[in-house]
């Protein structure tokens, strides 16, 4: 493992800094970390981990150092400025003093094996739904040695008595390993997890996974066990410090309060508060286009944010401006009001629209505000890009997704709610209405008691939540061309309706 002190390149002043910790944990890693902590002095820089694991005792030592220093931890990769894709922490980008400038990312980042033990040392421990925390059995390795001695004897009362023994050589003669935790190892692990405020349930999860496999811990379980203290929202990144009391809404920190995040009272309540879903602003709709609409361009309706009781009315308003044009609805949401999601789904099904999961980015917007108002067109569609990678449609958002004809998913995350007893009747009636296999979903959810469950793409297809996969190289909403686009391979035929002079309905 190598440590680099990195400053964010996404700001001009008062830029967040973090300690990027990437690589395998070895016996000398704690000593390297100690040097870095001595170097930063009293500064409270988050430690951002990406590691396949390594030595358990070293991970314990690192976790205790991090906790004693009062530092936060996160799971994430770091990409340094001007480094190539295949060498994200290239030596050329690191100054002689070991510092650099760069950005962090969650998508595909990982903390496996012994790494979660070091990660547990953080006073605040965060990751996003696009990063992976995984565990397996602890393997103890035993080395067998043949030791040679030079022994001197003397005869005392006719008996041979040893008077000195000196080691003269050692030779390895074999090695063995075991995944069974002895009493001493079990006590050490139990004590450490208790010290870090992590549930002992993690031990059972570790011991149930063979050493050549990794069990990925779902975000809800990581939160329940205390391994994570919070999930990062879609516009937060690893290395951000935890927001202090009264932090400004535009401050570069994670964990903004619900009122600050929404910008107004009335944040949507989530059915299971124990899962601590990231807060977002109420859903808004933008009519988008990508490319030159006098040549080729695609158009879609971008729907992002929390589903609130008035979201269906805003959806109806933008569809009314489109007349008979059937543009795909591209969703990104943590969910929200269930009845509102039912209403949205029925509106989309009645209009015969396509749905998919994707995140929309407008040009010249900062990373932390990808739909900045300055880039929204005052009339007509807004130019932007859409991608499936890292996008999400969770909780009640999936109820809206399943209404599309067709309904598609790429490399995005889908999660679905488990209804309460009082909600079950209308919940499964909606499933039947949308042609989704309610019985299979109910059986799948029976093993979990949390509000949200991640659903793999294959399972979403099997259940009927989606009925198509976006091909590699394509993006959500990337198949319908604008009405003025020239006929081409990408736009095989022109639409007849006109583009209306409206950017959409926004909160």
From TrEMBL:
SUPFAM superfamilies, per the entry: ClpP/crotonase
Protein name according to UniProt: Hypothetical conserved protein
Species, as recorded: Rhizobium etli (strain ATCC 51251 / DSM 11541 / JCM 21823 / NBRC 15573 / CFN 42)
Lineage: Bacteria, Pseudomonadati, Pseudomonadota, Alphaproteobacteria, Hyphomicrobiales
